């Protein structure tokens, strides 16, 4: 393999690695209004299954009445008419981080929203955030994120009676096979460079 081909190989591997770390956003804008849990959305090859203990119909897709949550959102109560539900999101691949926009059904003091991450049924960690009232809008809105060890499931809950989520940005863990490929490619470039220098030195001595 020539140096030029090796460089192309490494650049391609880097591109794959970057793609594997790119954010995939679930924003419910492609879902029909009235779509209720349980349902699955797939974006860029990553699937997310949304469900709750109140299914069928615990949470529902409806048009946004918020500022930072735009287009369609997912919130409760859904057709089941149940409040105080947690939203479970199961991903088809392991993630390294996730972030999302949320709003809680509070008229006075904003209630905290909690995001708990699991690897299958094993607890990985959690995060908590509280929204803020935005001028001209009725409910507090905020953002929450979690990152760390690999996880494939999150549970979103709040002490508020109801809440809505949008723009769930999921970053998948890098494919483990890419790093050895990059190491091999970089090693080959180094070896090729040394050989080229040796040939050039030998030629200058003759």
Description:
The chain has 206 residues and is of the alpha+beta class. It folds into two domains: 1-21 and 175-206; 23-173, Sandwich (Jelly Rolls). It contains two helices and ten strands, in the order H-E-E-E-E-E-E-E-E-E-E-H. It has helices spanning 3-20, 178-205, and strands at residues 23-26, 39-43, 46-51, 60-63, 72-75, 87-104, 112-119, 122-130, 141-158, 163-172. Strands 1, 2, 3, 4, 5, 6, 7, 8, 9 and 10 form a ten-stranded antiparallel sheet that branches. A hairpin with a 2-residue loop joins strand 7 (112-119) and strand 8 (122-130). Helix 1 runs antiparallel to helix 2. The protein is globular, with a radius of gyration of 24 Å. 29% of the residues are buried. The model is unreliable at 3-20 and 177-194 (pLDDT under 50).
Look at the structure and give the CATH class of the largest domain: Mainly Beta
What is the CATH T-level topology of the largest domain?
Answer: Jelly Rolls
Structurally, the number of domains stands at 2
Number of helices: 2
Main sheet properties: 10 strands, antiparallel
Portion in helices = 10-25%
Radius of gyration, in Å, reads 24 Å
> Architecture of the largest domain in CATH?
Sandwich
Distance between the termini: 27 Å
Number of strands: 10
